[in-house]
Design brief:
single chain, about 80 residues, mainly alpha, 4 helices
Length: about 80
């Protein structure tokens, strides 16, 4: 799986979690770029991404994510 396959699916997850149909993420998107992305929303987002891609992130992986690109890389490495 590559980023061209992952990003459209991530966009849908982000739109659902944040209730905003205009969200369009890139590899450089961070929590600072999305208004309602706080620590509670982050937990919901991680759970939704895990469900969408059928994987589980380790706590250290979640803590190390600095942007959507980091998330994409993890999904590409382990995703189906």
């Amino acid at each position: 799986m590559n980023s061209n396959e992952i990003i459209p699916r991530l966009n849908e997850v982000f739109r659902d979690v944040f209730g905003n149909s205009s969200i369009s993420v890139t590899e450089k998107t961070t929590a600072d770029d999305i208004e309602d992305w706080d620590s509670l929303a982050h937990i919901s987002l991680v759970a939704a991404v895990e469900s969408e891609f059928g994987l589980r992130f380790k706590m250290r992986e979640v803590s190390a994510m600095k942007n959507v690109g980091d998330m994409i890389n993890l999904i590409a490495e382990r995703g189906r």
